[in-house]
Amino acid sequence: MNWQAISFDWNQVRAFLATAEEGSLSAAARALGQTQPTLSRQVAALEEDLGVLLFERAGRAMALTGAGVELLEHVRIMADAATKISLSASGQSQAVEGRVVITATDSMATYHLPKIVRKIRETAPNIQIEITTSNEVRDLTRREADIAIRHGRPDQPDLIAKLVGEITWHLYASEEYLKDCPPIETLRDVEKLDFIGFEFNERLIDEFRPAGLNLTLKSFVASSSTGTVMRELVRAGLGISFFTRDVEIWDPTIKPILPDQLSFPIPIWLATHRELHSSRRIRIVYDILAEELAKMARSIAR
Questions:
Q1: Core-most of 14, 83, 125, 189, by most CB within 10 Å?
Q2: Fold: same for 3-89 and 98-302
Q3: CA-based Rg of the chain, rounded to a whole angstrom?
């Protein structure tokens, strides 16, 4: 083993990986819980130590150079190994057991969590996962769940929250509904369509207005507090609604409407109790959720 050849700092490598995955220094800093200047210094130090330029700086965006792309493949392998080492050092993940309750929206629980639960089971097979569906953080504060996946930052002081990614909502309608509609070229055309709402339509109206979409309560022909029901109402040709881009993968018959003119950023927050620092089983599940949800958000954004 040539020990002299291993001269890089792991923190610098982690900063490089986060920047490459997140696309900017600011996003990487948020993901790692660091300040942007600190992260920038770590990336610059790695470039200096290796003697190569890893990123082309274009404003806030960071584009990988050829050397950066080549290094990224090796760094991802290192990160996977580091994750396994951390799990082993934190308490032998194979021996960790017990129940962990995850609460998420019904759409998240239905379409994304099953694959992540499989990853959790592969890592810690003695942990039992229970999934509940809810749109409120109160199930955490009432101790009805251990970990919550939410689209808004929890503000309860006794919770730990982490922003793991961001996705966007766009307008969608079924092919059946669109074939009977006049041409849709502007937001004024959209305002004449039937909408499928979500729980508090007054709040949706207030959120749409700054984007140039002016609706009234009469715009909503049906509503549901359940995302999967909303999707079925849209599939049935009853109207249009907002979904994330992955709806196009799950159902090719649902089509986007003016995606370049109207979209809303939706953050993905992971929240849990302060017991995260003392419970090995919650720590393992939390870390896997954070990693896999970040990957999911990046894949949807592409």
A1: 14
A2: no
A3: 22
Determine phi and psi for 68, rounding to 5 degrees.
Answer: -65, -40
Answer whether 32's CB lies under 8 Å from 18's CB. Answer: yes
Domain extent listing, the chain: 3-89, 98-302
Full pLDDT tens readout for the chain, 302 residues: 444 555 667 788 888 888 888 888 888 888 777 888 888 898 998 888 888 898 887 766 778 888 888 888 888 777 766 665 554 554 444 457 889 999 998 889 988 999 999 999 998 999 999 998 876 655 566 667 889 998 888 777 777 888 898 888 899 999 999 998 999 999 999 999 999 998 788 888 888 888 889 999 999 999 998 888 999 999 999 999 998 888 887 888 999 999 888 888 889 999 888 766 678 888 899 999 999 999 888 887 66
Q: What's 98-302's CATH class?
A: alpha beta
Residue 202, token pair as written in the block: 């007054």
Using DSSP's 3-state secondary structure scheme, residue 184 falls into coil
Rounded Cα distance, 274 and 171, in Å = 38
Structure tokens at 88: 């082993």
**DSSP assignment of 76-131, as one string?**
HHHHHHHHHHHHHHTT-GGG--EEEEEEE-HHHHHHTHHHHHHHHHHH-TTEEEEE
- pTM (predicted TM-score): 0.65
Work out the end-to-end distance of the chain between its first and last CA atoms, rounded to an integer number of angstroms. 40
Nearest 10 degrees: Cα torsion 105, 109, 115, 120: 80
Which CATH code for domain 3-89? 1.10.10.10
And the tokens for 291? 């990693």
Rounded to the nearest angstrom, the gap between the alpha carbon of residue 34 and the centroid of all alpha carbons in its chain is: 19
